[in-house]
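tmp note - Transcriptional regulator, IclR family
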Amino acid sequence: MNLKKERLDYFSTPFAKGLSVLSLFNPDHKNFSLKEIADALDTNPSSAYRFVNTLVKLGYLTKDPRTKLLSLGQKAYLLGLNLVNSYSLLDVVKPFIDEVNEQLNVSVDSCVLEGDHLLQLYFRPAKDAPYYQGLIINPAINCTGLGKAILAFLPEEEQQQLLDRIKLYRRTENSITDKVELIADLERTRKRGYAVNNEEYIKGLITIAVPFINLKTGHPVGAVSFDFLIHQGPLREIEKKYAAALLKLGKDISAVIK
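out:
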């Protein structure tokens, strides 16, 4: 039996192409024309149309009747949410976040780094706090506490490669968009053990964040943050009051990651 042929027999090229279409969409490029999709897949427009039309019929893509531009449909978003909710790491971090939220009454957020984006794992708001929900998929790694916590603890070569690839977003006047300045901030983060975000992502929002680490590899798996509104106190007071608890939370999660 030809094992190579057998493996190819069980590989569905049309299905793979359909998944490739869905993978094109991201927070920076939410809409595509049929020609753009055909070019990205290196295929002809008629073949691309078959893939796209099938995904539209199934609800994974939607087509604007006026512009003909394509965007992700409700089925795709539901698939993404189900993926996040079924992610095994969520089962690890959720009990720890719930416990510290109840003990300290702080808003706690968490994420993992997937490619060049942050993927939110679990967010638990403080009681009676104005509700804030971050992006489920966030490309602004440079100006979030979670993103900087992960960046700071990546191996130097991997950190440099990621910084070379990603866009340095400016969300507020406090966002760090200069690469040299960002690297200096990441060095300070590594020394203190946690990242700080003083209204760099959203005006009025302060966060402190710490990575959780795979202790076998020493590699950051994700990050967890405490989030505060500016009326709850200046950054230094927040650090003094909550940094120790945050560092403990990061260590507790790291201890059970496999």
